[in-house]
Amino acid sequence: MFTGIIEEIGTIAGIRRTGPMFEISIHAEKILKDVNLGDSISINGVCLTVTDFTTGRFSVDVMPETVKATNIRELKPGSKVNLERAMAAGGRFGGHFVSGHVDGIGTIVRKERLENAVYYEIQVSEDLASGMIMKGSVTVDGTSLTIFGVTENTFTISLIPHTMAETIIGQKEAGDQVNIECDMIGKYVGHYLRNTGVGGKKQDITKSFLEENGFV
Predict the structure, then answer these.
(1) Which stretches are Lumazine-binding repeats (predicted)?
(2) Of 2.40.30.20, 3.40.50.620, 1.10.10.60, 3.20.20.70, which CATH number belongs to 104-196?
């Protein structure tokens, strides 16, 4: 479990491909201070397991399904990645519940600066967009962010200067792909309503449903 508060930007040190599988080594510093074999590390929002480490780098294995479903496949030596250790039970909870299980890939279609903020409009499938609401939470490349606009197949986020500087999203431009994880609580509620329903009546999460029940 993660919070979506990025602790460090790491650098890909090497990638070894074995068929459809990857072994990735990553240069890092802060997150290695208390690392152990088997620890979970979020890499661009993907929960991966530490299989080896030294004082300045660590390694993870990436399964074929993860390669297909995320932007991990685009990484190469020198690529920058967002890193976060698994949430500590006694720590501050600065973001939102993030599982590290990416729901899909989005494509940045617009990047626009407005005063001290930078707005990103990201195109996703209608299925992903249907799980997002205004002022709700979303995880983009492992970063917990607030949604400021939603259409049938896009959503908009806004980055403050600190987030621009401390995550890799600030380096991305229109056309770049990002990993998307929808809000975990929203996914569970949506699954329950679609498969169990309220009062025995199954119900999709639609804009009209949210409006009728005071969520929008």
Answers:
(1) 1-96, 97-193
(2) 2.40.30.20
Q: Are 50 and 37 in contact (CB under 8 A)?
A: yes
Report in angstroms the alpha-carbon separations of 29 from 11, 85, 166.
10, 12, 14
pLDDT digits (tens, 9 = 90+) for 6-26: 999 999 999 998 888 889 999
Question: pTM of this prediction?
Answer: 0.85
Q: Which CATH number fits domain 8-85: 2.60.40.2470, 2.60.40.1120, 2.40.30.20, 3.90.226.10?
A: 2.40.30.20
Q: Which amino acid is at 66?
A: T
